[in-house]
Amino acid sequence: MKQIVPSFCSSSFLLISRLLAIFLCISPTQSRFSVKIGNDVLSQICAQTEDRNSCLKALQSDPRTASTNLYGLAQISINLANATATETKTKIKSQLGQTTDPNLYDKYLHCLDSYVNAVSKINYANERWSIKDFLALEAAASDCLIDINTCKDVTTPASPFLPQQNDKSHLLCSAMLTIAKRLAAGNN
């Protein structure tokens, strides 16, 4: 009987030490990814953009937003920014083929180059997101804003769609940047 007790104690000690090791191996970064964000956090994020209500509407348009964490919200913002910037790039290409005004053609060409760069930055942001390199994600989002601002600086009222598309793209890259900053800082 004495041999059963030490064997039982050894097994219990081994089990407890393994569980303790598992809990100690969970980093603070992993634990913040399991916390679902609330509407208050979403409001804080969107309050840092130029149009809080449009930001909330855009992020909440994705059904995953209601049940995601900050890391997942970053992916949603990247997806939304990519879709909008790609849509804008496609519309600019279409306008290039239709305009006969050389001045407007040059502006569209300039904007097309900016949006090619912006989409490239968003794709890079997605790569950085997937490996949890939040500082690089933040930098890519910031660069995306610079590219979009470059196009915003040359648009005119003669372009009926571009100012609105620029604003939408800018808003989504701004949301992506705000989320990236929170991730990089370790905030939820």
Automatic annotation (TrEMBL):
InterPro entries: Invertase/methylesterase_inhib, PCW_Enzyme_Inhibitor, Pectinesterase_inhib_dom, PMEI_plant. Pfam families: PMEI (PF04043). CDD domains: PMEI. The keyword Disulfide bond applies. Residues 37-179 form the Pectinesterase inhibitor domain. PANTHER family: PECTINESTERASE INHIBITOR-LIKE, PLANT INVERTASE_PECTIN METHYLESTERASE INHIBITOR SUPERFAMILY PROTEIN. NCBIfam families: PME_inhib (TIGR01614). Belongs to the PMEI family. This is Pectinesterase inhibitor domain-containing protein. The gene is LOC115984491.
